[in-house]
Amino acid sequence: MAADREADGMSLHYYRARWHGVDYVASPEPHSLELWIRLRSPEPADGFEEVEPGCHVRPVPASECAALHFVRTVCTWRGERFDVHGERDGRLLVEYLGGSAPAAVELGLERVERGVYRLWVPRAEVTDLHEHAEPLNVGKQHF
Fold this sequence. Notes:
- The structure is a single chain.
- This protein is mainly beta.
- The protein has one helix at about 100-105, and strands spanning about 15-20, 20-30, 35-40, 50, 55-60, 65-75, 80-90, 90-95, 110-115, 115-120, 125-135.
- About 5% of the residues lie in helices and about 55% in strands.
- The protein contains 1 helix and 11 strands.
- It has 2 domains: about 15-65, no CATH class; about 75-130, no CATH class.
């Protein structure tokens, strides 16, 4: 796992970049001719600028990154797959990934908008809580 994600230890969705053999929390930064990636480190590192206490940033061209992933937290609740969008007071805000409106209604989920169903559920009822890292192929992107 990349370091420096959130003060409470759980960041539910973020970008992760591998640069010079190290994984960093990252954010894409489109420039006029190519995509850059802003790397973040909680510790001082060569070429990183401290932007606030405990947060050091270094922008690098995406082409210099060995890998870029979009990482999200997923789980299973009542036998169905969910994205996790929040955590509070021992509960998780889960968003249904199943794609079936009737099944979502049967699960007691709240419709947020068309095709989007969410619900706060007790964390103890959730299983298989883990990060899923989706590789992004940024290649040599030009804008």
